[in-house]
Amino acid sequence: MARLVSVKGPHARGPQDHIRIQWNMGNSCNYSCQYCPPILHDGSKPWLNTQLYIDTIDKISTHYNALQQRTDYELIGGEVTVIPGFEDIIRKISEYNATSTVFTNASRTVEWWSKAREYMNSVVLTYHPLTQQKEHFEAVINEIKDHIHVSVNIAGVGGQIEELGEWAEHIRDMFKDCDRNPYYNVNICVKTMYKKLLGRHSKQETYWEYSDSELEVLRRPGIKPRPMPQKSAEEQQTMPQEKVDPVIDTSSMTEFLYEDGTAKYVQSHQIINEGLNAFKGMLCHLGHETLNIDANGDIISSWCNAVHFGNISDIDNWALPESYTECPFDYCNNISDIAISKTR
Predict the structure, then answer these.
(1) Predicted TM-score of the model (pTM)
(2) What is the pLDDT of residues 179-211, one digit of tens each?
(3) How far apart are CA 278 and CA 1, in angstroms?
(4) Hey, what domains does the chain have and what are their CATH numbers?
C-alpha cells in the first residue's frame, strides 16, 4: 500500500480562519452506562463555577478574534446540558459570533430544547439503548432538526445491532423534507463500542464480540450515498452503459492522502474500524488547528497531552506552540485528535 503523506479532518479542509476549542467541562452525568469508564461519568471532576466558564470564553474568544480567527467550541462531558446555567454559557459563545457544538445524550426535556436551540449551532446526539427511551429521543430530534445541525450516534450494544440498524434508518426518514439537515447529508450511525483505553495508545478492542452480521451494520456509512439520477428509457437505449458509483458527500469526512496521489475519505466512526489511526512519526498540527481544555481546567494541545499551556484560572499567560509535534504513539484513539492535520 502507498505511503500515507497527509491526514486532514473536515475542520482543516475548509478556510483556515478558525480554531476548534474542544472543552471537557466536567465528568458529571445523569447516566452510568456499563461501557463507559467511571472517570467519564462519576462526578469526580465536578462542574466549575458558571462564571468561570463565561470568563474563559471571554478570554479565549477575545484572544483569537484579535488574530482574525473565529472560535468554534465543542462542549463535551459528562452530560454538559445539566451544568447549572448552561444556557448562559452557550449564549455567551453566540455573543462572539462563535459556534458551539454540544455533545449530549438528549435527556433534557423537549421544552428545554425548544429554548436552548436558539443558542446552539449543532449537536451530536448519542442514544444509549440500555438507558434511554426511543420516544423521547425522537421527540428531541423533531424539536431541533429544523433549527440546528444534527448528528446522531447510536451506541452499538451487542445483541441489539440489527434492531438498532433498522431504527437508525427510521431516524433518517425523520429528516426527509428537512431543509436544515438534508436527508443525504445528516450523519446517523450505529457506532462500534470499544474498550476505553484512556491515556493509552495501543490498538483498541471492541467491548462486545460482534457477529459478522452485526459488523456489517456497524460498518455502514453514517451518511447515506446519494443515488445517481435515473436516465429515461430512451437515454438508456442510446447511451453506453457504464457502472457509476453513488455520490457521497465527503465534506464531513477525514481525508487520507497517499504518496501515489490517491485519496481516501473516511467517516470518523469508521477510521478506527479500518485501522487507519496509526500516525507515528508524522507531524501533528495540534495546538495550531485545535486547542483542548480538560475536566481539570488544564489547557492542552490535544487529548494525547503532548503540549500543556496552563490552567484556565491563569489563561492570560498561555501561548500557542511555534512548531508541529512529531507523533510518538503507535495509535491515535481519540476521534478529535485523529481529525487534526498530519503531514510528513
Answers:
(1) 0.82
(2) 999 999 999 999 999 987 766 677 889 999 999
(3) 14
(4) 17-244+286-320 (3.20.20.70)
